[in-house]
Amino acid sequence: MTDNPPSAADFPVRYARWDGPGRPFTVVDTVTAGPGPGEVLVRIDLATVCGSDVHTVTGRRGSPAPGVLGHEQVGTVLAAGGEVRCEDGTPVVPGLRVVWSVAASCGTCDRCARGLTQKCRALFKYGHQELDELAPLTGGFATHCVLRPGTAVVAVPDGLPDEVAAPAACATATVAAVLAEAGELAGRRVLVTGAGMLGVTAVAMAAEAGARVTAADPDPYRREQALRFGAAEVHTTGATEADVALELSGHPDAVRTCLHSLTTGGTAVLAGSVFPGPAVAFDPERLVRGLHKVVGVHNYRPADLKRAVDFLAAHHTTYPFAELVEGDYDLGTLDAAFAGARGAGAPRQAVRPRAAAVGS
Fold first, then answer.
1. Is 1 contained in some domain?
2. How many CB atoms lie within 10 A of CB 334?
3. Are residues 324 and 347 in contact, defined by beta-carbon separation less than 8 angstroms?
4. Same domain for 200 and 260?
5. Beta-carbon count within 10 A of 171 CB
6. Distance from CA of residue 11 to its chain's centroid?
7. Are residues 157 and 182 in the same domain?
8. Which of 22, 75, 135, 294 is deepest in the core (most CB within 10 A)?
9. CATH number of the domain bearing residue 231
10. Tens of pLDDT along 209-246?
11. In Å, how far are 87, 107, 154, 163, 242 from 307, measured between CA atoms?
């Protein structure tokens, strides 16, 4: 913990500026001061290219430009501006390896008071903000990030590899939030539509919770991978009956499948539809007579991030999580990392900002 943060000259930094769809990333060198009150300065050790980053760069999802993208990362604390603690009470001190939430919340608005901190009225989202050149360290595609007050911070155990820990900040924590809304899973039939990064994570977490999991995806490689993550069976379309249906792809057909699969008293949790798409019709009579529940999940709460890291720490060797991340890019080759993310390989590409960075 640092009560007197270092001066700007102590922290030369570098970030990748995104100027909008169809334009290449530009690497910018600058310096930053130590953290202000309640802030934390973190050196980013590894970041991953999330699917929503790809949607942003291709113009499918709107985001302010210019900006610094990236919101799945793991890093090492360099300094803290006063007393800051992790979600479990661990002091945030230099040298601590951490992941942090995709958003910072005020903690005082009406939504925060209702427990909806992920939808705070003054929400600040890492990797989704318009660039402020005086305070640019707001995304994962940089050598450093300044964590604002109201950011959930979780310590990363020593045995958890960077490649596995980084996606906890978005993919794994989102899945933890989805399962929290799904309710009790032991002994229940769970359908997961979409076997990408979120989908196979959901398969593993649901299987560990005692569910019999069916995964649906049109891609044969993804179906095979879902089996390795604990699926009892896989299908192309997901035509099955389920007590719980988890939609993690965002495809309209998958949403329909989830809604139509529910048995009496079933719950559908939708989390994949985070970009514009066609409306999906549903039969309200079927929902009413079937006692169905449909829940939407976007972002997550601090407790979800803690559960995500705990799950990965306990099970990352049981399931092949490390295989979900490939590549070894730096900020200067970020365009290539995004090209790789749009390919047919692993669902995440790894970016090591320090590989082409200056300073700490």
1. no
2. 26
3. yes
4. yes
5. 27
6. 27
7. no
8. 75
9. 3.40.50.720
10. 999 999 999 999 999 999 999 999 999 987 789 999 99
11. 10, 20, 10, 18, 25
